[in-house]
């Protein structure tokens, strides 16, 4: 009898442990203004955070503006909330990701998969959960409620900053969580602020040529560029050649052996797999992710932004040094990262020698 009880107890323990291990590890903390928890989830590196507020009978995801002392949510128009705000937190941000979704496409392709519950709304006509989305709108990132795709009104609903009316979007970024995601969780690369002349020890060189990968701020986003430390400038492409002398970031990684330049041909049909392992280089035109590519052009390697396969202008954009015009190529090398890559032995020797 005792044995049976012990066995049952152990079984129960297993079940409980299993449940525990598989619980997504994110949560809502009470928010006190000016005190941002160490594990709070930022909307877009912009000192704004994801909140949850109770307003007009609904629990709604919101944008927290710590420097203004309030949160903004949308439910029957823009709502400014100053009390009883929660803030979304997560100890391991690498498991969170913003997934670009398109609610004009069918629900069948799993666009709601991995999404994070952000609240609910219920009245005599409606009853649905809210999820969390964001969009660059009127010059700033706003996080707000997502009405699920199954619903006829499925959309991201934020607010018009001018008149406070609701603004509905079918294409936006949805916040998601994947407990077992291995990339970019295991991806050990990052952007450092760059001061000209000072190349960080872990910066990743373009091609053994004293040039590095930069990220620059342009109208409509952040894009990859080429850093020329010896010239004290970076060059990128935005409607032609663009020279930048300040606010440049430099791409770095402590383990260069996991990074590789993969030759891709965007004209090859059915080649969506060519985006696999691509390193994110920024975003442009409000919502479009851009990646990092290089091409040997006019006798030198140039790094520029890659518009992904699904974009109608897919390809790498660099510039012409002679006349400053844009150059658009479909065959180039794309920067990729594989956290579990195993290099052939002879290549490992090369790296340890260098
Ligand atoms: C916001 O509201 C103003 C005033 O009604 C309107 O002119 C403008 O087009 C709206 N903007 C957006 C992005 O919806
Ligand atoms: C989570 O990420 C892993 C690794 O990238 C992937 O294999 C898995 O399918 C993802 N799970 C879900 C539920 O999206
Ligand atoms: C990473 O590299 C390993 C070893 O070369 C390979 O088996 C694996 O498929 C690669 N993973 C991805 C996601 O490309």
UniProtKB/TrEMBL annotation:
Where does the record locate the signal sequence feature? Answer: 1-19
Keyword check for Signal, yes or no. Answer: yes
Pfam families with a match to the protein in the record: DM9
Cite the InterPro entries for this sequence: DM9_repeat
Key word Signal present: yes
State the UniProt keywords alphabetically: Signal
- UniProt-recorded name of the protein: Uncharacterized protein
Name the source organism. Popillia japonica
